[in-house]
Predict the structure.
Amino acid sequence: MALSSKFLAFSALIFHFIVFPSIQTSFRPKALVLPVSKDASTLQYVTQIKQRTPLVPVKLTLDLGGEYLWVDCDQGYVSSSYKPARCNSAQCSLARSFSCGTCFDGPKPGCNNNTCSLLPANTVTGTATSGEVAQDVVSVQSTDGKNPGKVVAVSKFLFTCGSNTILQGLASGVKGMAGLGRTKISMSSQFAAAFSFHRKFAVCLTSSSSSNGAIFFGDGPYAFLPYNIDISKSLIYTPLILNPVSTSPAFFEGEPSADYFIGVKGIKINGKAVKLNTTLLSINKDGHGGTKISTVNPYTVMETSIYRTVVNAFVKSVSKDARVRAVAPFGACFNAKSIGSTRVGPAVPQIELVLQNKDAVWIIFGANSMVQVGNNVLCLGFVDGGLNPTTSIVIGGHQIEDNLLQFDLATSRLGFSSSLLFQQTTCDNFNFTSSA
């Protein structure tokens, strides 16, 4: 269900001052790190924090463009440090909550009188609800960029209470979503405020369901075994673009998008530009079009005309003898025995995303373009998004696995590494086992 501001009958007064999460430690880390794994069943990327008093592990689906942390408060939320955000408070202002109301089944977590609320959304299924804004303790591990370090806590970390109804479709055991998007109360923004970090974070997703990738909050180094290579030293940069219209399943009118958009100006297959309707590559006044990066879409999704053009150009660049019947949801599949292998995956045509500054090109190699769907079948890992999607190109999880992406919110730019396989490492090579 898609909710808008019309759904809500009450509005909150907004204060012109800001509060930040309180630190519950004398040790001030330089950066934080969270493990992130790939769920084999749903293809979602799952991380875990500790929250509440006493602390309990909370499993979350990663949502790169999610507005904030939301957690199911309906089932088993017990914490002595839980505090709802009262109407007209600084917390409600920071959260940009435009709703204030009452709840008659409480008091309990998620249901208190005179509290402000937001619209937590399951961005995998596109469902949403109304939920109480609250604060509680959140505990994570610090890092020096090479090893995990001391555990640190934020005592007043803002989040929103979801409900068990919007957990449907999320990975087994997940209790909410970890939103890292462009808002003041996203997890990345709150950690930066609490520990006076650079407003940067980095995501490195593993392609394996049996090992962990990493999410870093703060600046580099981002070092990976076996050679402790600092990936932050070899990034290519392109501007991040703000979409002025929300792309969330549920939002208040006038909210900008929390998603991370980049300026894709063209696409090349094997070095040759494909002809696209370039109007679709820009964001229009209604917030439609453009290109964003997503961790909730397992594969890249393209508007139909872009999809067909790219797939046709790709197919023409591969031997006709290699083509086999397509396997849903993909439109082009090949006999794996007819395709060689390279250090960066199957030996298939390179796909280049030509970005805003002409010197910046995001090259997608075989490991990120191809998906193995059977013993001998490889498919191009792009899917048809229909004729009128909100966003023309959504770069999905498979295409960013074993690539490190750094989001610099202070300078509004994206740093990307291209495939780490070129540097003889992968995203599951951060050393989580050794203590700093």
In short: The radius of gyration is 22 Å. DSSP finds five helices and 34 strands in the chain. The longest strand covers residues 148-162. Residues 298 and 397 are 5 Å apart (CA to CA).
